[in-house]
Amino acid sequence: MAEEEMAGEVDDDRPRGPYARVHLPDGQDIYATVRGREQDPTGAWWYTLEIVVPDRLPAVGGPVQQGRVISFTAGYPTVEPIEGQDYSVLNPDRQASGPPGRWRVSIDRDGLEWVHRSDCAQAGDTWISDQDALTRLSDPERARPCPVCRPEAVLQTLPYAPEG
After folding, report:
1. Residue 151 CB neighbours (<10 A)
2. Cα separation of 139 and 110, whole Å?
3. What's residue 99's pLDDT?
4. What strands lie across the sheet with 64-75, from one edge to the other?
5. Does the model's pTM come out above 0.90?
6. Which residues of the chain fall below pLDDT 50?
7. 38 has which bridge partners?
8. Sheet-wide strand order for 143-145
9. What is the DSSP string of 3-71?
10. Other Cβ atoms within 10 Å of 78 Cβ, number
């Protein structure tokens, strides 16, 4: 991966860094986007990472290839920080507020929002909470569940607390 790519200067659909080098069990090294880190009681660092892999997606005209985000967790030394990457965005004080959510939203050209599971290949970049997903889906004129990842299968089991 070129240094300008890791610095986030290339305009494409890949998640933005910081990046880390991951040593896979078969000897390969890959670059992954670091989404979080935490220190366990022994002092070891554990990283939450994402990579984008090609995946087959069913479509009306036949299958198409699209990137799919795969999330995983690994510890040091399997995950090796890269010199020059800004890991300050991962400071524990910032993580105390909790994850950004486990649902993602995309907006179609008509302005309709689609709620997705976090690992859906069709998902957008906006992360939302359980309650925000439930609130959005309570208005079918505003949002609908993705027919590919079917987030309603999990969301229907959660308690809904309407705003107001």
Report:
1. 22
2. 16
3. 52
4. 64-75, 45-57, 29-39, 19-23, 79-81
5. no
6. 4-11, 14, 94-98
7. 46
8. 126-128, 103-107, 113-117, 143-145
9. HHHHTT-S-SSSPP--EEEEE-TTS-EEEEEEEEEEE-TTS-EEEEEEEEEEEEE--TTS-EEEEEEEE
10. 16
